[in-house]
Specification:
This protein is α+β, with helices and mostly antiparallel strands. It has one domain.
Length: about 140
């Protein structure tokens, strides 16, 4: 199997076009579709978050294909969510106030990246800034 050059993925145009998920997950269409569905679901909440229970039911719905995307429960936690957690795009165990239950609860929450308005000139730092800016654009859109 030939090794792909990292230059294929670190492309200003692909990140500029909102293809940040392609950079993160490669050419796996099912994973990208599942990630878009997850982000959309989390953005629909007030706090950009989902409880652990909601996440579990979401993963089960993905596995059965109820959400229009069929994606394995195991792959959701191991490949998709783990990568988003490890890269700092999603935070785990963020405490938020639940008005219905009148108590705080731990949730998974989308995280906006704190980056400067203007990006660095070149190099790896510029590439990571572009990735973080693309992620922020997805969350804010």
């Amino acid at each position: 199997m030939p090794v792909k050059s990292i230059k294929l993925y670190w492309n200003d145009k692909s990140i500029g076009n909102g293809d940040v998920l392609t950079v993160l997950f490669g050419e796996r269409k099912e994973t990208i579709d599942a990630a878009k569905t997850l982000i959309g679901r989390m953005k629909s909440g007030v706090n950009l978050s989902m409880t652990k229970r909601e996440m579990r039911f979401f993963a089960k719905d993905l596995e059965t294909g109820k959400l229009g995307v069929k994606y394995s429960y195991h792959n959701f936690y191991v490949k998709l969510l783990r990568k988003l957690l490890d890269m700092g795009f999603v935070e785990k165990d963020v405490l938020i106030w639940n008005d219905k239950r009148k108590k705080t609860q731990a949730v998974y929450q989308l995280k906006l990246q704190s980056i400067p308005e203007r990006g660095p000139q070149s190099g790896f730092v510029k590439q990571t800034w572009q990735l973080a800016k693309g992620w922020n654009d997805i969350i804010k859109a």
